[in-house]
Amino acid sequence: MAQHPIPVRITGNIFNVNSAGYDDTPGVTGSFTLRVHNQSGDWVDVNIDRAAGGVSSTGHIPNQSDGGFTETVAGYVNNQSKITRWRPGAFGIPGNGGGEVFFSLPPEAVTALIDLTVVG
Q1: In whole angstroms, what is the distance from residue 51 CA to residue 111 CA?
Q2: Model's pTM, two decimal places?
Q3: pLDDT < 70 positions in the chain
Q4: What number of CA atoms fall less than 13 Å from residue 66's CA on the CB side?
Q5: Is the distance from CB of 33 to CB of 68 less than 8 angstroms?
Q6: Fewer C-beta neighbours within 10 Å, C or N terminus of the chain?
Q7: Is 74 helix (H, G, I), strand (E, B) or coil?
């Protein structure tokens, strides 16, 4: 069992990536988990847009709460994925805040976890 970091590229200042890693242990059923801690001051909805696989969403996570989801890792391997967040902005209209996290899992990834905090 070997743990490896997932290279991430962050734009803006609304996300802190606490950890991002994958395991390449053969024979393990693959899963990808996104864990989100909301410290933004309002509810958030965090989405992952996979270039070839659609969008997955956490649904509304209240301020000072945690959320996330687990899916099969196959939808993330060799896909450029983008994490965005939506929360109320001006006049209560949800906006993405201009921050994003980009990542791609290598073909040897069997399980993966990204743990992040939304701060803005």
Answers
A1: 20
A2: 0.93
A3: 1-2, 27-28
A4: 5
A5: yes
A6: N
A7: helix
**CATH of residue 67:** 2.60.40
| Count of Cβ atoms closer than 10 Å to residue 82 Cβ | 17
**CA 40 – CA 64 distance, rounded (Å):** 8
pLDDT tens digits for range 45-71? 999 999 777 899 999 999 999 999 999
Give me the number of domains the chain comprises: 1
Residue 114 contacts residue 95 (beta carbons within 8 Å): no
3-state secondary structure of 43: coil
Residue 8's CB is within 10 A of a number of other CB atoms, namely: 16
Structural domain range at position 34: 3-118
Angular region, 79: left φ>0, alpha ψ -120 to 50, beta rest = beta
